[in-house]
Structures are given as C-alpha cells and as structure tokens.
Here is the input.
Amino acid sequence: MRITIVQIRWVHTAIFWLLSACVIVTLYSGMSGNITTWTWVAVGALFLESVVLAVSGWTDPLTLLAERHGAAHGSVADIFLPKALADRIFPVCGTLYVIALGLIVWRLVR
Here is the structure.
C-alpha cells in the first residue's frame, strides 16, 4: 500500500489537534491548580513529542515523510492548516507549554 500526501496530512492534522488539546489541558491545569491524571497524560504526550522532535533535528518527522512523497520542501503541504497558523505552531505551542509547566511546578511547590 502506497502512502499518499493526503493520508500524511490527515494523520499530521489529527496529531496536531491532539497535541494542541494537551497544551490546553496543561495550561488550564497550571492556571486553575486542578492537576489530575489527565494533566500528567498531556504533559507526557507533549514531552514525547519534544523528544521525537529533538531526535529528528527539530524537524517534524511527518514533514520529512511528506517531502519524501513529493511535498515541496519547507511547505505546509503536510498539514490541513492555513500557512499563517502552521508557520507559528512551534513558537506558540512551545511557549504555552513552557508557561503551563512553570505554572504546574509553581502550584505543586507552593
């Protein structure tokens, strides 16, 4: 079975929304102090994503896969999001994740 760029885009988009939900859960947990098992599941999923990105040289492996299947290098052809949003995923979500972790740690130590 041959993988198509459309299939890669669907998977990548689903992962994006799942990880975005994890960012929201961690941020909510840190802001509200309501730290639950779901908080730790979200933190773990985001940590795993961070490890995957670090191991792959800070380039999303699905982007590399899409490029191998014909997507233009450096494009957002591997995800169903507007370019303006796709170009800002890492800085926005990464910053919110760091803030969320800081809030969670602050809640836990106080």
Summary: The chain has a mean pLDDT of 88. The CA atoms of residues 84 and 110 lie 39 Å apart. The chain has one domain: 5-109. The two ends are 54 Å apart (CA to CA).
